[in-house]
Each structure stands twice: as structure tokens, then as C-alpha cells.
Design a protein that fits this description.
Layout: H1 3-18, E1 39-40, H2 41-44, H3 54-64, H4 66-77, H5 85-95, H6 98-110, H7 113-130, E2 138-142, E3 150-152, E4 156-160, H8 171-174, H9 179-182, H10 190-202, H11 212-229, H12 235-239, H13 243-262, H14 271-278, H15 295-310, H16 316-321, H17 325-332
Parallel strand pairs: 1-2, 2-4
Antiparallel strand pairs: 3-4
Helix pairs in contact: 3-4, 3-5, 7-10, 10-11, 11-14, 11-15, 11-17, 15-17
Length: 337
């Protein structure tokens, strides 16, 4: 077999793996539902815009939209109820903090809410198409003072916009956030993170699933399902990889899998082991420092791709409801060369 032919096969294979196979994702969204309009709390009570009437603006917000105010009070201010007389006072103290005010300025300069809202609306149209019996979240955006990226419960998701200001944000290194994390803290990552979280809320991993194989398969299912909610994005975006990181995994696939099997890691229950394989990190501890982090998630995705190829009648709903990881692994026939 000549070298040119081998190279052509590699290019075609790489394109297939990186792309999202638009044919299988070409669906009609005509009768689907999506999220209601996103509530942009940071715009309603922006201390920069409403500096002269900050206190009355907060009181007005708390009085008119109690559900949004309760979410903001609970997850940003740490107050259980917005109707608590102290809530407005705490809100004004929060908004007058110099760091919070700088965060508001940065958010104003970076974000286009219309673009973000449209991307999330599109993703949840696809979510509703594939999971019509599952609810859709109510979504808020906030400035949290650089706290958690996302806040959530079983019905609502809050997005801390100041945690998505971009890889070149000067605040993140000063806050001690490692670069492998803040390089992904960009506006374009928000819809992906929100859908990823909502899939995990709707299809949680059982706390009884303690073996590495359970986590690999679970992560693979989430990534695979996400690709159906973002059919126009390449697969490497679903896992937060660059093209180079994805290519490294493809080139190293058989070596990674052989290591996992030879070291008998699949049925290991060590929490530290599982974290090193699937949690964000500068690289995956069991492999070379040139590897990207979370290679376990990538392996899980490859297993799921193989499983779905062998089970073409399996729907996304059925895939995510199948909790027998060993069954999926066995039926996948996954055996990289």
C-alpha cells in the first residue's frame, strides 16, 4: 500500500471523526420547543448603568420578578429568600464592591447577549427534538464576583458571565485560576457548558456507579448527546479540545486503550484514578505530558461511537437511559488498532 493512499485514508478518517456527521443530525425543528427568553439579571441591576438609583433599582427588581430575584439572592448573594428585608441591603453592598463593579465593566465590554441567547435557543430546540419528554431549564445570566461558572438546581441554570470573559482576561491569573481552565472560559463555551450541565441533570450518573468504566461510558454518552444539540460544531468542541489535542488522541488511541486494559484500570473504583482520567487537568496523568486533560472522556466517546455504529436503531434517549456500562462496552466491539 503506497504512502499517498495511507495518507488519504488518514485524512478521510480524521474528517469523519472530527465532523458531526450532518446526515444523521439533519432533523426538522418545526414543532420543537426551546427555552423561554434568558433573564439577564446583570443588565437589570447593572451598577454602572444605574449608579444613581442603585438601591431603588434593586428594590424594583426584587418586587417585580420574585423568581429571578430569588435565584439571584440564593446563588449570588447567599440569601435564601429575596423577600428577606436584608436581601436588598446585601445586594447593594455586593454591587458597590470594587471588584464586582470591575466585573460588570468587563462583562459589558465582552458580551453580546443576543448572539448567546440565539445559540442556546438553537441548542435546546435540538435537545427538545431528541428528548421531548424532558423539561427545559429557565436560564439566568449574572455577574457573581468571579464565583462558580454555573449555578443550578433541577429547574434553573445561572451563568456567571464574569467567568467567561475570554482566555486573555487579566483577572483570571490574578485569581489563581490555572491556564488550562481559563483558556476555555470564553463566551463561545457558554452554550456548550449549559447543555452539558442540563444533560447531566436530566440523566445523572448513579452514585452506585463507582468503577472507571462507568465514568468513561457516562462521559462518552454526554459528549455524544451534546453533538446532536450542536450539529454544526466539530466534535472536538464538545469535549473542549483543540484540533491538535483531538489529533493527538487519535494518534495515541491504541496506546491509551492498551494501557487502560493492561493495567486493569477499567474496573478500578479509586476515586483519585477516576478524577485523573475525566476531570479537567493540564494533561492526563497516566499518559505523556503532551496528552490533553480528560483523555478518559475522549475514550468514552470513542466507545459510544462504536456502540452506536453497531446499534443504529438505538435512539439518544435509549442510549442515555442505558446504565449498564459493561453491556455498552461489550456490545461496542471497541478495539482500536
Amino acid at each position: 500500500m503506497n504512502k499517498r493512499f495511507i495518507f488519504l485514508i488518514f485524512v478521510i478518517s480524521y474528517a469523519v471523526f472530527v465532523s458531526c456527521n450532518s446526515n444523521s443530525r439533519d432533523v426538522s425543528l418545526k414543532n420543537t420547543k426551546t427555552i423561554s427568553s434568558v433573564v439577564h439579571v446583570e443588565s437589570i441591576i447593572n451598577p454602572e448603568i444605574n449608579s444613581q438609583n442603585s438601591e431603588s433599582n434593586v428594590m424594583d427588581f426584587f418586587g417585580k420578578d420574585l423568581s429571578s430575584a430569588n435565584f439571584f439572592a440564593r446563588y449570588v448573594l447567599g440569601v435564601s429568600d429575596a423577600s428577606n428585608p436584608e436581601a436588598a441591603l446585601i445586594a447593594n453592598t455586593f454591587l458597590s464592591d470594587s471588584i464586582v463593579q470591575k466585573a460588570y465593566v468587563a462583562v459589558d465590554s465582552v458580551f453580546s447577549n443576543k448572539k448567546m441567547d440565539k445559540e442556546m435557543e438553537s441548542a435546546f430546540h435540538y435537545f427538545n427534538y431528541h428528548f421531548p419528554k424532558h423539561p427545559l431549564p429557565k436560564i439566568y445570566t449574572v455577574v457573581s464576583g468571579f464565583n462558580n461558572n454555573l449555578f443550578y438546581n433541577s429547574e434553573e441554570i445561572g451563568i456567571s458571565l464574569d467567568r467567561y470573559l475570554g482566555a486573555d482576561c487579566d483577572f483570571y491569573p490574578l485569581l489563581g485560576i490555572p491556564s488550562y481552565k481559563y483558556t476555555k472560559m470564553t463566551p463561545s463555551q457558554i452554550p456548550l457548558d449549559v447543555v452539558d450541565l442540563w444533560l447531566r441533570i436530566q440523566f445523572p450518573l448513579s452514585i452506585k456507579k463507582r468503577q472507571l468504566v462507568d465514568h468513561l461510558i457516562y462521559e462518552g454518552k454526554i459528549i455524544y448527546a451534546m453533538s446532536y444539540c450542536f450539529p454544526d460544531l466539530p466534535l472536538y468542541r464538545m469535549i473542549g479540545y483543540s484540533e491538535d489535542q483531538w489529533r493527538w488522541c487519535l494518534d495515541s488511541e491504541s496506546g491509551m486503550w492498551n494501557y487502560v486494559v493492561d493495567q486493569k484500570l477499567l474496573f478500578d473504583t479509586s476515586r483519585l484514578l477516576i478524577q485523573k482520567m475525566v476531570r479537567p487537568a493540564p494533561f492526563t496523568n497516566f499518559f505523556t505530558p503532551k496528552s490533553p486533560g480528560q483523555c478518559g472522556r475522549w475514550i468514552g466517546l470513542r466507545i459510544i461511537q462504536s456502540y452506536m455504529k453497531r446499534n443504529p436503531k438505538c435512539t439518544l434517549q435509549e442510549l442515555l437511559q442505558e446504565n449498564n456500562a459493561s453491556k455498552i462496552l461489550n456490545q461496542s466491539g471497541y478495539a482500536p488498532l
